[in-house]
Amino acid sequence: TLHGEAGIYYESADLSFRARAAGFLCGCVPDAVAYNEGTEAQGVDSMHHRYYFNRNRLIFWRKHDPDVFAVVEAEARRRLRELEERLAMTEFGLDATDESIRRGLEAGLREAHAPGLLQRPSPEIGAFCPTDAVLLQAGGV
């Protein structure tokens, strides 16, 4: 969902899409859980998670699928507008959760439309075997 409840930031999904485009087979182990030890973004309830999830979702779909991006972008713009309206009506600002989401949406929309985003080369993938690549992704938190 756009509000950051899902347990991914899209780096693993981006790697999977690029590996598949390079001709590698990708698999997913939905029960696997991977953590970045020591990161402040650990856990779906962190402000960092909400920021990066909302930002990276826009960048990911902009890079990989223009049709899905159009839907995701419209949803993000609607949610951002809603949060900005609430922000304008309060003297003390949004709570930390909503502010994290607002800033992530704002950054994601800006970066998704940054000049050259689609022309930037992605790092080359050469470490996967084309017959047995398996990428682990958190299957639920």
Provide a compact summary of the structure.
Helices cover 49% and strands 3% of the residues.
Can you characterise this structure?
Mean pLDDT is 75; it is low at 1-8 and 128-141. The chain contains 4 helices and 2 strands. With 141 residues, the protein is mainly alpha-helical. α2 runs antiparallel to α3 (66-88), α2 packs parallel to α4 and α3 crosses α4 (96-112). Strands 1-2 form a two-stranded parallel sheet. The two termini are 14 Å apart. The chain is globular, with a radius of gyration of 17 Å.
Strand content: under 5%
Low-confidence runs of at least 5 consecutive residues: 1-8, 128-141
Strand order of the largest sheet: 1-2
Total helix count? Answer: 4
Judging from the principal axes of the Cα atoms, what is the shape?
globular
Query: Mean of residue pLDDT?
Result: 75
Rg from alpha-carbon coordinates:
17 Å
Which structural class fits the helix and strand makeup?
mainly alpha
Main β sheet profile: 2 strands, parallel
Distance between the termini: 14 Å
User: What level of helicity do the residues show?
Assistant: 40-55%
Would you list the SSEs in sequence order as H and E?
HEHHHE
